[in-house]
């Protein structure tokens, strides 16, 4: 569904000369803090609720249209490196118990950014994203049937955010944003992980106009 929305938006806003004239490509970078609430359900179905914290930095490239007065629509692709991880938690394994740490290494995705622009300088926008992230689990003891203390998986999710962007001049802008991300449940070492993340970030943008 998200891919269909993105494709329809590109066709709608890029099919006429009027919309093409209003297209502004841009690049940018963000720094932020990730605070997650992750649920670990081990091989005995025992649940552990834990926090996951870390800083992250991302780069993004996109294009924005503002052909309909104050209305705005942007398309954006992004990629980030993150240090988000849990503290060590004791979980049940096969056999016995062990300490386990779960971390997120990187993430990437694409976003649709509908918004409203005030006085041609300040933009309020929503972020609707499809996202994919690398999760890794480390256990103190190699579980039966595995050859390593690490298990890894790429996990997809959906992201909803709210942001505020202000133009400094014709080319440069700054923005701040809050995003909430919900991931699909993934299995690592037979343990199920469900991650929900809150991100707070600030960044700078360069517009090619």
What would your notes on this structure say?
With 209 residues, the chain is mainly beta. The chain has a single domain (2-207), classed as Beta Barrel (Porin), CATH 2.40.160.20. The protein contains 2 helices and 10 strands, in the order H-H-E-E-E-E-E-E-E-E-E-E. Mean pLDDT is 90; it is low at 1-19.
Summarize, please:
With 209 residues, this protein is mainly β. It contains two helices and ten strands.
Overview features:
9% helix; eight-stranded antiparallel β-barrel; mainly beta; disordered N terminus
Q: How many alpha or pi helices? A: 2
Estimate the global geometry from the Cα principal axes. elongated
Q: Class, according to the CATH hierarchy?
A: Mainly Beta
Strand arrangement, largest sheet?
1-2-3-5-6-7-8-10
Main β-sheet: number of strands, strand sense, barrel status? Answer: 8 strands, antiparallel, barrel
In which range does the helix fraction lie? Answer: under 10%
User: What fraction strand?
Assistant: over 45%
- The structural class is mainly beta
Oligomeric composition of the shown chains: single chain
Radius of gyration: 20 Å
How many β-strand stretches? 10
Taken in chain order, the helices and strands follow as HHEEEEEEEEEE
Averaged pLDDT, please?
90
Number of domains: 1
What is the level-2 CATH architecture name? Beta Barrel
CATH fold description: Porin
Tell me the distance between the termini: 32 Å
Which regions contain 5 or more consecutive residues with pLDDT less than 50? 1-19
Helix/strand layout:
Layout: H1 2-14, H2 17-21, E1 24-41, E2 47-68, E3 71-82, E4 89-92, E5 97-118, E6 122-139, E7 150-167, E8 172-183, E9 186-188, E10 191-207
Antiparallel strand pairs: 1-2, 1-10, 2-3, 3-5, 4-5, 5-6, 6-7, 7-8, 8-10, 9-10
């Amino acid at each position: 569904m998200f891919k269909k929305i993105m494709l329809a938006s590109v066709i709608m806003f890029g099919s006429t000369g009027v919309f093409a004239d209003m297209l502004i490509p841009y690049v940018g970078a963000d720094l932020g803090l990730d605070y997650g609430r992750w649920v670990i359900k081990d091989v005995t179905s025992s649940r552990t609720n834990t926090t996951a914290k870390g800083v992250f930095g991302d780069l993004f490239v996109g294009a924005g249209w503002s052909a309909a007065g104050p209305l705005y629509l942007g398309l954006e692709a992004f990629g980030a490196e993150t240090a988000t991880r849990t503290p060590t938690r004791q979980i049940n394994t096969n056999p016995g118990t062990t300490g386990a740490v779960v971390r997120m290494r990187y993430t990437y995705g694409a976003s649709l950014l509908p918004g409203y622009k005030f006085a041609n300088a300040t933009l309020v926008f929503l972020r609707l994203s499809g996202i994919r992230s690398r999760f890794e689990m480390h256990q103190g003891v190699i579980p039966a049937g595995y050859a390593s203390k690490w298990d890894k998986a790429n996990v997809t999710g959906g992201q909803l955010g709210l942001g505020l962007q202000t133009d400094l001049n014709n080319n440069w802008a700054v923005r701040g944003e809050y995003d909430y991300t919900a991931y699909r449940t993934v299995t690592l070492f037979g343990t199920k992980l469900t991650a929900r993340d809150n991100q707070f970030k600030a960044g700078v943008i360069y517009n090619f106009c």
